[in-house]
Amino acid sequence: MDAALELLDPLIFDKAYAYLHPAPSAFAGNATLPAVAESAWPRDNIIRQCISILTVTQIGASLLYWVFSALSYYFIFDRRLEHHPRFLKNQVRQEIQSSMNAIPWINLMTLPIFLAEVRGKSLLYTDVSDYGWAWMGVSTVLYIAFNDIMIYWIHRLEHHPSVYKYIHKPHHKWIVPTPWAALAFHPADGFVQSLPYHFFVFICPMQKYLYMVMFGLVQIWTILIHDGDMISGHWTEKFINSPAHHTLHHMYFTVNYGQYFTWADYYFDSHRSPKPELDPIHEALRVMREKGLVDEQGNPIPQKPKTE
Fold first, then answer.
1. DSSP string, 218-261
2. Is the pTM of this model over 0.85?
3. 3-state DSSP call for residue 124?
4. Which residues pair with 207 in a beta bridge?
5. Alpha helices in 76-126 (DSSP H)
6. How many CB atoms lie within 10 A of CB 229?
7. Which of 79, 192, 205, 243 could be a cystine partner for 229, CB 3.0 to 4.6 Å?
8. What angle do helix axes 208-224 and 187-203 make, rounded to 10 degrees?
């Protein structure tokens, strides 16, 4: 967030706050207005910072959600899965509504953390030379590893019976999720699972623009693992927690808790390998055959146009 405000203050916010909340001007005689308008709230004003952070997070999270969920839904997600018997009526609309309801509350809960970043309480730094280029690579690896293990355990603990029904159950309403389900959860669930990303820069130095990019990529990854893609048999599935793994997580609940990699699931005995026979598309195609929409090979059957 520190990097975002550094970019947006001179481009947008300085002018916006000068217009909405201008600094009082003292006129004497024929004094004229200053050449450059200023706001009564300087950049380090805490009220201005709070408003700016909430504005950036609301617009930024919503844009990422709408753009990348739409791209994944229309170009990757297999729309035949919408015929699966456990695909809910109006599910896409429900997923979108749930996501859009969650985003503002998550942003509000995250505000104190972002505010601490902006006010210099974190270990974010600007100049690469402060730690060198090698540390850029090392901090990236540490960031991913820290998030991976922390989110594994947060996610797994959220499945404990004493917690699950209060926080995580709303996200598992979507047995066969679409990319629109990426943020469709209880706000407390989204906030808790995001905590490792935020806490990392308070315990480990990280270049702020690198952190901004990594944080954005995390949001995109969260969308992509909900695309329902059950491609299996590739060598990377032994290491990467792919959309296939997360599809099985939604279907079987107590497997594949990982975020990026499978090592924690292997080590802590919660891994379930994607296999072709587990693909929910088989059940979706069965329903489509019963409706006369596809033949025995899964090929579409031309439908007669509906007459009024």
1. HHHHHHHTTS-------GGGGTB--HHHHHHHHHHSSS---SSB
2. yes
3. strand
4. 125
5. 91-118
6. 19
7. 243
8. 150
